Amino acid sequence: MKLTLKRLTSRGTPMLSATELEGDENFVAFRNCRFDCPDSQRWTFDEAVVDAAEELGFKPFLFNQERWVGESGWEFFKDDWAVITQLADKVSAALGVPYTVVETEV
Length: 106
Prior knowledge:
Layout: E1 2-8, E2 13-19, H1 41-55, E3 62-68, E4 71-76, H2 81-95, E5 99-104
Parallel strand pairs: 1-5
Antiparallel strand pairs: 1-2, 2-4, 3-4
Helix pairs in contact: 1-2
């Protein structure tokens, strides 16, 4: 699993993404079913994001925007970079995976 915190400069909304998710080969976005890929790292990543967002009072401001095989990305609809980096730190610590920060045009 690889974690990336993106600053989407053209839209102004940050996103925390996990790519190279192991066990995700049978994931189907419109089904979103653990039975399709029960051992996928997707579920631990998504749960870590939601748990951190709830803890920081940030849950109403995020949406699971990227949902493809091997990738899950949560977009933040409030550009509070201090809280977003705290959230990314919590997710990184919970998963034991460091994250990188990139600025990208979308």
